[in-house]
Automatic annotation (TrEMBL):
<protein>
    <submittedName>
        <fullName>HTH-type quorum sensing-dependent transcriptional regulator VjbR</fullName>
    </submittedName>
</protein>
<dbReference type="Pfam" id="PF00196">
    <property type="entry name" value="GerE"/>
</dbReference>
<dbReference type="InterPro" id="IPR005143">
    <property type="entry name" value="TF_LuxR_autoind-bd_dom"/>
</dbReference>
<dbReference type="GO" id="GO:0003677">
    <property type="term" value="F:DNA binding"/>
</dbReference>
<dbReference type="Pfam" id="PF03472">
    <property type="entry name" value="Autoind_bind"/>
</dbReference>
<keyword id="KW-0804">Transcription</keyword>
<dbReference type="GO" id="GO:0006355">
    <property type="term" value="P:regulation of DNA-templated transcription"/>
</dbReference>
<dbReference type="InterPro" id="IPR036693">
    <property type="entry name" value="TF_LuxR_autoind-bd_dom_sf"/>
</dbReference>
<keyword id="KW-0805">Transcription regulation</keyword>
<dbReference type="InterPro" id="IPR016032">
    <property type="entry name" value="Sig_transdc_resp-reg_C-effctor"/>
</dbReference>
<dbReference type="InterPro" id="IPR000792">
    <property type="entry name" value="Tscrpt_reg_LuxR_C"/>
</dbReference>
<dbReference type="InterPro" id="IPR036388">
    <property type="entry name" value="WH-like_DNA-bd_sf"/>
</dbReference>
<feature type="domain" description="HTH luxR-type">
    <location>
        <begin position="170"/>
        <end position="235"/>
    </location>
</feature>
<keyword id="KW-0238">DNA-binding</keyword>
Amino acid sequence: MGTKLDMSQVLEDLENTSTLDELSNVAVRLRDRLKVEHLIYHWVDGAGDQYGYTTYPDAWAERYLEKNYHRIDPVILGCFQRFHPVDWKTLDWSSKVAKAFLQDAQNHGVGNQGYSIPIRGPNGQFALFTVNHSCDDETWQRFIERHGRELILIAHYFNRKALEFESDRQPDSARGLSPREVDAMTLLALGYSRAQVAHSLSISEHTLRVYIEGARAKLGAQNTTHAIATALSRGLIVV
């Protein structure tokens, strides 16, 4: 399971999408490259409305909406309380309701392993980017160790593109940082060196420096570390 990803190509594919159908096609190709069973983008806004894309069976997607499962789903509830990516095995599945939900999910083709990345925005917007598969714990752990950082960056790009196509779901106010500034700060927060960030974004280190300085100025930060901490605390980037 899993294969080496050409991140430059993945991000370029996402950047070049102009419709939700194209974004869905990129998601399917990414799922196949990662060799996982399912890839999911799930959005719940402040009013409780849901939107998303999933490779789950249609029957499960329809049942999930019909039963309003987002109100009891341990993945939604657990990730809403966290800022970091979450392995499903670390969540609380002990209640009778959670156990019944899990059994229903697995009966509909949902795998026993999951890894979800919370994504937040102003005004109550909350999204999850998830990969799901059926395998043993050791195999899954190796997959996450190999692709965890890449999935965080992909989640950020996927969320940004999805919002472009759903303009009525955009935050009412600007996030403060430009998309490229968010990209740069996210990778720096993940521990990438400036050279690695520049390579990942296919830009020069000089251009990267412009983005970093721009982010620092907008955030009122004294240095890059301060800028990263401020961006994280405001929910402008997710790691």
